[in-house]
Design goal:
Blueprint (H helix, E strand, L loop, with lengths): L6 E12 L2 E12 L3 E6 L5 H8 L7 E6 L2 E3 L4 H6 L2 E4 L11 H6 L5 E2 L2 E2 L1 H15 L14 H14 L4 E5 L7 H16 L3 E6 L2 H7 L2 E6 L2 E7 L5 H9 L17 E11 L6 E11 L2 E6 L6 H9 L6 E6 L2 E2 L5 H4 L3 E4 L3 H5 L6 H5 L10 E2 L2 E2 L1 H15 L16 H14 L4 E5 L7 H16 L3 E6 L2 H7 L2 E6 L2 E6 L6 H8 L12
Parallel strand pairs: 3-10, 3-11, 6-9, 9-10, 15-22, 15-23, 18-21, 21-22
Antiparallel strand pairs: 1-2, 1-4, 4-5, 7-8, 11-12, 13-14, 13-16, 16-17, 19-20, 23-24
Helix pairs in contact: 13-14, 14-15
């Protein structure tokens, strides 16, 4: 058995089942020491499940795990930590009211005679953050820091436990382009030091940029492992989806009509500081066009959308939708003419403990087809849900009766998009609609948004993905520090120019600012 130790981790013939679904069906994965190994697959292909088995969160029905050639039993995450395995989850596992430092040392505290040695812990964390360039404010509460910072906290948590095998589950889904670049550098640094990295992703650019090898899963089965230097994005997407995928958006030039949404001089206060998060913003969205708000996360996009949809109060200015002033209307009133794909699918998109079918009729159960005399018509809800599940390929273990919480993130997202687009409203507000989706699903969602546009709807898109901004929008509005600093035509601009506006280096408000 000389060759076995080439692999620091081997997962052999792993099978893991859930009600109605084989999440992992006889999967073998081998991780070399010091390599970045990507795990690629569609939403619900079984990637997170496989990594949760390695981290001890699930027990497989079949198969074995070896570390350095020896069979190991990982009953829980503490066993995984003892073996030097750490994991950064897709939805972070942090305690919001604790400080950054307390989150990092929680469960691995240094004590002497029963007393917590915080000074030593702080010193170790500071050394790690200096060494890896992961700068965080150790005394800030987690609820007050950005998502990118929270991710650094998760990475420091792994390093603090001296983990040698690092699992990153969709680590870039919530990061800005700049943060993604930093993370990629950090991962490469870890690999050079001899740490071994498993990197779950379905973003082909990132995999091609950092991974040494890629293992592809499809519908719970192993498709194959390839060296990144021997492949390209198109063949990886074919392996992953099982058919050729259009990686570019197909659309005719827009034919905009009259304005559906008119925003004038809108201000929205900030939750974080005294300044306005949205500062005197004005723009229109017309029938038959996709207008994209681009910007680095945290420049007021979230508050702008919350102001438009009624999740936040507007402090001044006017918002007209289909000729009606809605600046102070209720969320339900705004919903008459607007569908909203929200940024935070768990907070504002789904009731996680409801079933899929209940979530799909959330705004519509009062319609005559779904209720009579106040009683819900279960058969009508079921058949409507079945129709949307098929149309949008929403995959789940138990179909309409699956509890939303148990579905994969990408399939939760598809469910929200299905519900919102099927409501057939004049304005579609889509905030990061393809976040966490794989290439096959992105191709479909982009097609659906273009179809809404071509049917004469007005589409307002907010996206942090520059490729998506450039390929999907007809007009780009760039937000920087709460203001719109530029309006660009995607056909006439470049990613570089867009980046200058996004970082505040260029502005149409009085020319160059830097």
């Amino acid at each position: 058995m000389e060759h076995t130790c080439e692999y620091v981790i081997e997962m052999n013939h792993i099978t893991k089942e859930f009600p109605g679904i084989k999440a992992n069906d006889d999967i073998t994965l081998q991780l070399r020491r010091g390599e970045i190994h990507a795990l690629l697959g569609e939403n619900g292909a079984g990637k997170s499940t496989l990594m949760s088995v390695l981290f001890g969160l699930y027990q497989p029905e079949q198969g074995e795990i070896r570390k350095n050639g020896e069979v190991v039993k990982i009953n829980n995450p503490n066993d995984a930590t003892a073996l030097g395995i750490g994991m950064v989850h897709q939805h972070f596992k942090l305690i919001e009211v604790f400080t950054v430092l307390d989150n990092i040392i929680l469960g691995a505290e240094t004590t002497k005679m029963g007393f917590l040695q915080k000074k030593e812990a702080r010193k170790k964390v500071q050394e790690l953050s200096e060494r890896y360039g992961l700068h965080v404010d150790l005394d800030a509460k987690v609820e007050d820091i950005t998502v990118g910072m929270q991710q650094r906290v998760e990475i420091l948590k792994m390093l603090y436990r001296d983990n040698e095998i690092l699992i990153f589950d969709e680590p870039t889904a919530v990061l800005t382009p700049q943060e993604i670049d930093e993370l990629m550098k950090t991962m490469k640094g870890f690999a050079q030091e001899g740490k071994s990295i498993l990197f779950i992703s379905h973003k082909l650019n990132e995999i091609m940029a950092v991974a040494d090898r890629v293992t592809v899963l499809r519908k719970g089965k192993y498709v194959g492992t390839v060296n990144t230097c021997d492949t390209d994005k198109q063949s990886l997407s074919n392996m992953m989806v099982g058919r050729p995928v259009q990686l570019e958006v197909q659309k005719e030039p827009a034919k905009p009509g009259e304005a559906v949404l008119q925003v004038r001089d809108m201000c929205v206060g900030s939750h974080r500081h005294k300044k306005n998060a949205v500062n005197h913003v004005s723009f229109d969205v017309r029938k038959g066009e996709i207008v994209c708000i681009a910007g680095i996360d945290g420049n007021g996009q979230t508050e702008l959308i919350h102001g438009l949809t009624g999740l936040d109060k507007i402090s001044s200015g006017s918002v007209t939708l289909c000729g009606q002033e809605i600046a102070h209307a209720s969320i339900r009133r705004r919903g008459h003419d607007m569908s909203h794909i929200p940024e935070d699918r768990h907070k504002h998109g789904l009731v996680l403990d409801f079933t899929l079918e209940q979530n799909l009729v959330l705004q519509r159960f009062r319609e005559p087809r779904f209720q009579k005399m106040g009683f819900i018509n279960a058969a009508a809800v079921r058949s409507y849900a079945q129709q949307l599940i098929e149309q949008y390929d929403v995959r789940s273990g138990q179909g309409p009766v699956t509890v939303a919480r148990s579905m994969s993130g990408g399939n939760q997202q598809k469910a929200i998009i299905a519900r919102e687009l099927d409501r057939d409203k004049e304005l579609v507000v889509a905030v990061q609609p393809t976040r966490g989706l794989d290439v096959g699903a992105i191709e479909y969602i982009h097609g659906q948004l273009v179809a809404q546009r071509d049917a004469g709807k007005a589409v307002l898109l907010v996206s942090l993905e520059l490729d998506e901004v450039m390929s999907l929008s007809d007009r780009i509005l760039v937000m920087y520090e709460g203001e719109i600093v530029g309006e660009l035509d995607p056909a006439k601009t470049t990613v570089e120019e867009l980046g200058l506006y996004m970082s505040g280096a260029k502005s149409d408000k009085g020319g160059q600012t830097a």
